[in-house]
Amino acid sequence: MPRRKRDKTAGRFHIHAHCVWAASRLFRDDVDRSVFVRELARITARVQWTCIAYCLLDTHYHLLVDVDDGAMPAGMQLLNFRYALMFNGRHRMKGHVFGARYDAHRIGDESHLLNVFKYIAVNPVEAGRRRRAEEWPWSSYPSAIGVAEPSSFVDPSAVIECFGDSDEIARARLKRFVDDT
Description:
Distance between the termini: 38 Å
Strand order of the largest sheet: 2-3-1-4
Helix content: 40-55%
CATH class: Alpha Beta
Number of domains: 1
Radius of gyration: 16 Å
Number of helices: 6
CATH topology: Alpha-Beta Plaits
CATH superfamily: Transposase IS200-like
Largest sheet: 4 strands, antiparallel
CATH architecture: 2-Layer Sandwich
Structural class: alpha+beta
């Protein structure tokens, strides 16, 4: 059965990718995570994505991005390839780092956007890594609610704007929405 064709048109997408079976973890430590975030920032600028959210766990990562026509496959190829090269070099491995092609699902409407954002934010809690979503340092969520310094390449305004007029009130409402699990 042939692979389904990638959606290459402009839009908003939830993207996630997992490690290959031979590498028990995609991110073995904070150095790996820092390398990935640096590459994500670089690729975001290069292919002119808008990164709305990200979250890195041990075995996988999630991205929520707005992309122009053709930008998603180009950016994902660069991101995963560059990270795999650095991961293999650092850990003296060869071959695939990612278990399969990344998955990308188009975001349909505001409700879908908010639910995907919440899913990404609470992923560390669901994985047992933290008690509260804002405690996970390898996510853009803490900065989205104003409890951490923002990353220069992340723009959560598409989500924050769904919760009200003033930034402070909107961020508090966003936090309540995410906490309500």
